[in-house]
Amino acid sequence: MRKFVNEKIDLGDNVVITKENVKTLGEKISLCATKNARRFAFGQIDNLYAKLQHDIFYKNSFSDGYDIAQEAICFLCNYIGQKLGEVCVPTIHKNLDCIRLACYKHIYTYLRKERKVMEQEDIDTCIIKVDSDCLQTPEDYIRVKKIIQKLNLTKQELEVLNCLYNQMTYTNISELLHIDRKTISRRKKKIQEKYCLAFQIA
Predict the structure, then answer these.
(1) Using one digit for the tens of pLDDT, what is the confidence trace for 28-41?
(2) What domains does the chain contain, in order, with CATH numbers?
Protein backbone atom coordinates (compact mmCIF):
# COMPACT_ATOMS: atom_id res chain seq x y z
CA MET A 1 0.00 0.00 0.00
CA ARG A 2 1.44 3.38 -0.98
CA LYS A 3 2.23 5.93 1.68
CA PHE A 4 0.77 9.43 1.76
CA VAL A 5 2.22 11.63 -0.96
CA ASN A 6 5.91 12.31 -0.68
CA GLU A 7 6.83 12.20 2.98
CA LYS A 8 6.73 10.33 6.24
CA ILE A 9 3.83 10.98 8.56
CA ASP A 10 4.75 13.99 10.66
CA LEU A 11 2.29 16.18 12.47
CA GLY A 12 4.70 16.87 15.31
CA ASP A 13 4.89 19.99 17.46
CA ASN A 14 7.98 21.32 15.66
CA VAL A 15 6.56 21.17 12.13
CA VAL A 16 6.42 24.72 10.75
CA ILE A 17 3.36 25.62 8.67
CA THR A 18 4.46 27.07 5.33
CA LYS A 19 2.82 28.02 2.05
CA GLU A 20 4.45 24.92 0.57
CA ASN A 21 3.19 22.36 3.10
CA VAL A 22 -0.11 23.85 4.34
CA LYS A 23 -2.16 21.89 1.80
CA THR A 24 -0.53 18.58 2.74
CA LEU A 25 -0.85 19.27 6.47
CA GLY A 26 -4.51 20.23 6.07
CA GLU A 27 -5.24 17.07 4.13
CA LYS A 28 -3.48 14.91 6.72
CA ILE A 29 -5.29 16.49 9.65
CA SER A 30 -8.66 16.29 7.89
CA LEU A 31 -8.14 12.56 7.25
CA CYS A 32 -7.14 11.83 10.83
CA ALA A 33 -9.89 13.98 12.32
CA THR A 34 -12.60 12.48 10.11
CA LYS A 35 -11.46 8.96 10.91
CA ASN A 36 -11.65 9.72 14.63
CA ALA A 37 -15.07 11.34 14.19
CA ARG A 38 -16.41 8.15 12.63
CA ARG A 39 -16.45 6.58 16.10
CA PHE A 40 -19.23 8.96 17.08
CA ALA A 41 -21.09 9.04 13.77
CA PHE A 42 -22.54 5.49 13.68
CA GLY A 43 -21.79 5.04 9.98
CA GLN A 44 -23.12 8.44 8.91
CA ILE A 45 -19.80 9.68 7.53
CA ASP A 46 -18.19 6.43 6.37
CA ASN A 47 -18.95 7.31 2.76
CA LEU A 48 -17.74 10.89 3.27
CA TYR A 49 -14.46 9.60 4.72
CA ALA A 50 -14.01 7.24 1.77
CA LYS A 51 -14.60 10.08 -0.69
CA LEU A 52 -12.14 12.31 1.18
CA GLN A 53 -9.49 9.57 0.93
CA HIS A 54 -10.16 9.12 -2.78
CA ASP A 55 -10.02 12.86 -3.51
CA ILE A 56 -6.71 13.31 -1.70
CA PHE A 57 -4.92 10.33 -3.17
CA TYR A 58 -6.15 10.45 -6.76
CA LYS A 59 -6.81 14.18 -7.25
CA ASN A 60 -8.65 13.60 -10.54
CA SER A 61 -11.90 15.10 -9.27
CA PHE A 62 -13.21 16.50 -6.01
CA SER A 63 -16.37 15.51 -4.16
CA ASP A 64 -18.07 17.06 -1.16
CA GLY A 65 -15.69 14.98 0.96
CA TYR A 66 -12.85 17.35 0.05
CA ASP A 67 -14.74 20.21 1.73
CA ILE A 68 -13.35 18.84 5.00
CA ALA A 69 -9.76 19.16 3.75
CA GLN A 70 -10.44 22.70 2.55
CA GLU A 71 -11.74 23.61 6.01
CA ALA A 72 -8.49 22.38 7.59
CA ILE A 73 -6.30 24.08 4.98
CA CYS A 74 -8.06 27.43 5.38
CA PHE A 75 -7.76 27.16 9.17
CA LEU A 76 -4.01 26.48 8.99
CA CYS A 77 -3.47 29.38 6.55
CA ASN A 78 -4.10 31.70 9.48
CA TYR A 79 -0.94 30.38 11.13
CA ILE A 80 1.62 30.38 8.31
CA GLY A 81 5.11 30.62 9.82
CA GLN A 82 4.11 29.10 13.15
CA LYS A 83 4.65 25.57 14.47
CA LEU A 84 1.84 23.04 14.87
CA GLY A 85 2.67 22.81 18.57
CA GLU A 86 2.44 26.53 19.27
CA VAL A 87 -0.47 27.85 21.30
CA CYS A 88 -3.39 28.87 19.12
CA VAL A 89 -5.34 32.07 19.76
CA PRO A 90 -8.66 30.72 21.08
CA THR A 91 -11.60 30.96 18.72
CA ILE A 92 -14.87 29.26 19.67
CA HIS A 93 -13.05 26.92 22.04
CA LYS A 94 -12.35 28.04 25.59
CA ASN A 95 -9.10 26.14 26.04
CA LEU A 96 -5.73 27.37 24.84
CA ASP A 97 -4.99 24.54 22.44
CA CYS A 98 -1.99 24.08 20.20
CA ILE A 99 -2.63 24.87 16.51
CA ARG A 100 -2.79 21.18 15.55
CA LEU A 101 -5.38 20.34 18.20
CA ALA A 102 -7.37 23.49 17.42
CA CYS A 103 -7.47 22.42 13.77
CA TYR A 104 -8.79 18.98 14.76
CA LYS A 105 -11.51 20.62 16.84
CA HIS A 106 -12.34 22.97 13.97
CA ILE A 107 -12.99 19.93 11.76
CA TYR A 108 -15.11 18.29 14.46
CA THR A 109 -17.15 21.49 14.79
CA TYR A 110 -17.61 21.58 11.01
CA LEU A 111 -18.83 17.97 11.03
CA ARG A 112 -21.18 18.71 13.91
CA LYS A 113 -22.70 21.79 12.28
CA GLU A 114 -22.69 20.76 8.62
CA ARG A 115 -23.10 17.00 8.91
CA LYS A 116 -24.92 16.77 12.25
CA VAL A 117 -22.79 13.81 13.34
CA MET A 118 -21.12 14.91 16.58
CA GLU A 119 -22.15 16.50 19.85
CA GLN A 120 -20.11 19.22 21.57
CA GLU A 121 -19.35 16.75 24.38
CA ASP A 122 -17.76 14.40 21.84
CA ILE A 123 -15.55 17.22 20.54
CA ASP A 124 -14.38 18.15 24.03
CA THR A 125 -13.52 14.58 25.05
CA CYS A 126 -12.34 13.12 21.73
CA ILE A 127 -8.87 11.63 21.92
CA ILE A 128 -6.72 12.88 19.05
CA LYS A 129 -4.99 9.98 17.40
CA VAL A 130 -2.88 9.90 14.23
CA ASP A 131 -3.38 6.55 12.56
CA SER A 132 -0.92 5.65 9.84
CA ASP A 133 -3.46 3.52 7.97
CA CYS A 134 -5.63 6.54 7.12
CA LEU A 135 -2.58 8.17 5.53
CA GLN A 136 -2.11 5.37 3.03
CA THR A 137 -3.58 4.96 -0.42
CA PRO A 138 -6.77 2.89 -0.23
CA GLU A 139 -6.18 -0.16 -2.44
CA ASP A 140 -9.91 -0.81 -2.79
CA TYR A 141 -10.32 2.10 -5.20
CA ILE A 142 -7.73 0.67 -7.57
CA ARG A 143 -9.60 -2.65 -7.58
CA VAL A 144 -13.00 -0.99 -8.02
CA LYS A 145 -11.73 1.11 -10.94
CA LYS A 146 -10.53 -2.01 -12.73
CA ILE A 147 -13.86 -3.75 -12.14
CA ILE A 148 -15.85 -0.81 -13.53
CA GLN A 149 -13.62 -0.61 -16.62
CA LYS A 150 -14.19 -4.31 -17.24
CA LEU A 151 -17.97 -3.86 -17.22
CA ASN A 152 -17.98 -1.51 -20.24
CA LEU A 153 -20.89 0.48 -18.87
CA THR A 154 -22.71 3.06 -20.96
CA LYS A 155 -22.59 6.70 -19.93
CA GLN A 156 -26.15 6.45 -18.56
CA GLU A 157 -25.36 3.32 -16.54
CA LEU A 158 -22.22 4.91 -15.13
CA GLU A 159 -24.22 7.96 -14.03
CA VAL A 160 -26.65 5.74 -12.12
CA LEU A 161 -23.79 3.74 -10.59
CA ASN A 162 -22.08 6.93 -9.36
CA CYS A 163 -25.33 8.11 -7.79
CA LEU A 164 -25.87 4.78 -6.04
CA TYR A 165 -22.26 4.83 -4.83
CA ASN A 166 -22.91 8.24 -3.27
CA GLN A 167 -25.89 6.72 -1.41
CA MET A 168 -28.45 8.83 -3.23
CA THR A 169 -32.08 7.79 -3.00
CA TYR A 170 -34.10 6.89 -6.08
CA THR A 171 -35.99 10.17 -5.68
CA ASN A 172 -32.77 12.20 -5.69
CA ILE A 173 -31.36 10.26 -8.64
CA SER A 174 -34.58 10.83 -10.54
CA GLU A 175 -34.40 14.58 -9.93
CA LEU A 176 -30.72 14.80 -10.83
CA LEU A 177 -30.76 12.70 -14.01
CA HIS A 178 -34.34 13.53 -15.07
CA ILE A 179 -35.36 9.90 -15.34
CA ASP A 180 -38.11 7.91 -13.64
CA ARG A 181 -37.69 5.19 -11.01
CA LYS A 182 -38.34 2.40 -13.52
CA THR A 183 -35.43 3.63 -15.66
CA ILE A 184 -33.17 3.71 -12.61
CA SER A 185 -34.14 0.14 -11.70
CA ARG A 186 -33.65 -1.01 -15.29
CA ARG A 187 -30.16 0.51 -15.50
CA LYS A 188 -29.25 -0.88 -12.09
CA LYS A 189 -30.35 -4.35 -13.21
CA LYS A 190 -28.30 -3.98 -16.41
CA ILE A 191 -25.22 -3.10 -14.35
CA GLN A 192 -25.77 -6.18 -12.20
CA GLU A 193 -26.16 -8.37 -15.29
CA LYS A 194 -22.92 -7.03 -16.79
CA TYR A 195 -21.12 -7.65 -13.49
CA CYS A 196 -22.37 -11.25 -13.31
CA LEU A 197 -21.41 -11.84 -16.94
CA ALA A 198 -17.95 -10.31 -16.55
CA PHE A 199 -17.14 -12.38 -13.47
CA GLN A 200 -19.11 -15.48 -14.43
CA ILE A 201 -21.50 -15.32 -11.49
CA ALA A 202 -24.58 -17.48 -11.97
Answers:
(1) 999 888 888 776 66
(2) 22-135 (no CATH), 139-198 (1.10.10.10)
